[in-house]
């Protein structure tokens, strides 16, 4: 696994598009069309994207994810909870991807 920090969506997208085999972009949103735990949802090389708790991901990011890997939904009972904490959402999404891939390594992580 590799963690990189980019200044904004455009900087990340430019970096991602410049990779030889960039893999799919998979977003997490309460508006996701598919459940996060659907079997076969993740592939080696996928990039998981999580937005801010209050604003989510920018429209450009959501569109890029819809075109490549889709938008996943983590179930939540909104009658009592407004949103999941970002770190909790990341933990849920990353755990499920690793569970499905059985810890298989993903794409490149060289500097």
Please tell me about this protein's structure:
The chain contains three helices and four strands; from the N terminus they run αβββαβα. The protein is an alpha/beta fold. The chain has one domain: 3-Layer(aba) Sandwich (Alpha/beta knot). The chain is globular. The two termini are about 15 Å apart. The mean pLDDT is about 85.
Quick synopsis:
This protein has three helices and four strands, in the order H-E-E-E-H-E-H.
How many domains? 1
Give the strand order of the largest sheet, numbering strands 1, 2, ... along the chain.
Answer: 2-4-1-3
Helix percentage? 25-40%
Largest sheet properties = 4 strands, parallel
CATH class wording: Alpha Beta
Extended strand count: 4
Q: What structural class do you assign from the helix and strand content?
A: alpha/beta
Shape: globular
Number of helices: 3
Q: Output the CATH homologous superfamily.
A: SPOUT methyltransferase, trefoil knot domain
Spans where pLDDT lies below 50 across 5 or more residues: none
Short key terms for the protein model shown above:
111 residues; alpha/beta; Alpha/beta knot; 4-stranded parallel beta sheet; 3 helices; 4 strands; 32% helix; 12% strand; globular
Produce the secondary structure layout:
Blueprint: H1 9-17, E1 25-28, E2 34-35, E3 47-50, H2 59-68, E4 71-73, H3 86-101
Parallel strand pairs: 1-3, 1-4, 2-4
């Amino acid at each position: 696994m590799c963690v990189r920090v980019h200044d904004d969506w455009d900087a990340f997208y430019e970096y991602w598009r410049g990779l030889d085999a960039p893999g799919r972009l998979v977003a997490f949103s309460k508006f996701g069309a598919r459940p996060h735990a659907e079997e076969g949802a993740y592939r080696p090389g996928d990039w998981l994207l999580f937005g801010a708790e209050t604003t989510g991901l920018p429209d450009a990011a959501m569109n890029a994810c819809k075109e490549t890997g889709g938008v996943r939904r983590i179930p939540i009972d909104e009658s009592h909870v407004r949103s999941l904490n970002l770190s909790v959402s990341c933990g849920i999404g990353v755990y499920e991807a690793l569970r499905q891939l059985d810890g298989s390594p993903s794409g490149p992580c060289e500097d």
